[in-house]
Amino acid sequence: MICPHCGAWNKDHYPKCIKCGIPLKVIGIKADNEAEITRTYDLEEKKRRTAAVKASVKLTQDIPIAEEDNAAKIPLSQSIQGMGRQRRKRRTIAAVKTGALVLGVILLCVFAVKLYPKLIKKGNELSSAGSVANVISTVNQLTRNDLDAHEIVFRSDEYESVYIKELAKTYIFTASEARLLLYDAEIVGDAPTSSKVNVVLTPTFYKPSGTSITGDPVKFTLNVPSSEITLISPSEESSTTQKALTTITFTVNPGSTTMVNGQDVSDLANKDGNIVYNLDTSRFGENFVTITSQEKGHTAKSITLTITRPYMDILIELDSTVAESSTGSSFTITGKTLPGASIKLDTSQSGEATVDTDGNFSVIAKLTKIGENEIIIRASMDGKQDTTYKLNVTYAPKLDEYSKQAWPLDSRNLNELKSYWDNKVGKIYVGTGASNGPIKADDPTALPIYDFTLEGGQSVYIQMVKGKPLTTGVKYKIFCDFDSMKGSTPLFIGRYYFEQTEED
């Protein structure tokens, strides 16, 4: 028997449809309050069942789909077809939902596999030892006693002490906190080789009862500072010299271990870390020198200098007694050249140079300006190319000679200097006033330049020679010589000064 509602097959004696539960109407029987349903079955088609549904059912009456009085009625054939479409639609929707569910499960699994370990790691980092031992730990970077340090703080109400395995030390909890201070220099050691140090501390926490638990490791990274080397002379890593002995001047941090070409020169450093080293540059061509310095708790720093000595067809070597400064305007130069060569100066010279049979020579140069003077020595010999040798000498006359040439630094002379400054270089002046302190220097290694206010109210710049600094607010009488214009302000080189009192 075919259910008129859903089209499912049922045995003839079933009172209700086994699929939808609708009461089945038997042929020739009239139920209470129900219309009689007459059906004609084809016996052969009934055996094939499926074909009978489509070809053998004859409808004699509309079948109601609802029991309400005014409900719409649909023919049995249309009802069966509509229900088939609905079943297919429901199956399609069910398949789509099932596919979406499967896709969602797959994506959830991928998310779990990829992100779960990261979430666990992040959680451990945030909770630190607390994830195991119910302790909150923090690491703070600070400065203590002018030294870089790290402070580790453990917070908990359950424990009375913590033991750090790597330090072999125990720290007591006070007011629910245990603190330990580690100086960076102690951690990295005297001679670290890496710019970074990874620190791992393993804490074990003890309760008052004596029970203990090991917490998560406390981890942090130290950035190790580098040692310092500051070149003074030569100022560049590549330079040229004509000297057979070249003086190298540089600065390191006080207390550093310093090597020059493998030789320990630490003892040459003064209290400020300045080192003066004489390098043998008698060989023509490139001369290499490696300077290495390491301060305790710092990584080592190395620089390699290349000092080139040009080839000389006629040798000129100055005696080690030849200075680079003079208090007089006449300056004697002695040295050695090839026997038979002649010596003269391309700059101002006093008298004739002398050369003996062994090539030892002597010549007197005239220093024409206060401050630095360049002297050019020339050696000549038949059949050879001339050799020139440059020597810089600073002329700093004694006070009695210097002061005799000083012009007053008043408004008239100052205005004249500003108008014709290019003709005034090296001219000596004397002025009285007070220092306002040093100005910002373009070259941090240069001597300080002071902003100086003269008694007449004019402002000038004065750069004092080494070893003669000015104190801000103090009144001075200064002997100086003009150097150059720094913007619209004259710059003088101060060589001598006297502090002035109120009576002066």
Description:
There is one protein chain. This protein has 504 residues and is of the alpha+beta class. It has seven helices and 33 strands. The protein has helices at residues 43-48, 50-55, 76-127, 130-133, 184-188, 399-403, 411-419, and strands at residues 63-64, 73-74, 136-144, 147-155, 161-164, 169-172, 177-183, 196-201, 203-206, 212-214, 218-223, 229-233, 238-240, 245-252, 257-260, 263-264, 274-280, 285-294, 301-309, 316-318, 325-326, 330-337, 342-345, 349-355, 360-366, 371-380, 387-395, 407-408, 428-438, 449-454, 459-464, 475-486, 489-499. Strands 13-19-18-15-16 form a five-stranded mixed beta sheet, with no helix packed on it. A hairpin with a 2-residue loop joins strand 3 and strand 4. The radius of gyration is 52 Å and the shape is elongated.
Keywords:
five-stranded mixed β-sheet; 504 residues; five-stranded mixed barrel; alpha+beta; single chain
Offer a quick outline of the entry:
Helices cover 17% and strands 40% of the residues.
What's the layout of helices and strands?
Elements: H1 43-48, H2 50-55, E1 63-64, E2 73-74, H3 76-127, H4 130-133, E3 136-144, E4 147-155, E5 161-164, E6 169-172, E7 177-183, H5 184-188, E8 196-201, E9 203-206, E10 212-214, E11 218-223, E12 229-233, E13 238-240, E14 245-252, E15 257-260, E16 263-264, E17 274-280, E18 285-294, E19 301-309, E20 316-318, E21 325-326, E22 330-337, E23 342-345, E24 349-355, E25 360-366, E26 371-380, E27 387-395, H6 399-403, E28 407-408, H7 411-419, E29 428-438, E30 449-454, E31 459-464, E32 475-486, E33 489-499
Parallel strand pairs: 13-19, 21-27, 28-29, 31-33
Antiparallel strand pairs: 1-2, 3-4, 4-7, 5-6, 5-9, 8-11, 9-10, 12-14, 14-17, 15-16, 15-18, 18-19, 20-22, 22-25, 23-26, 24-25, 26-27, 29-30, 29-32, 30-31, 32-33
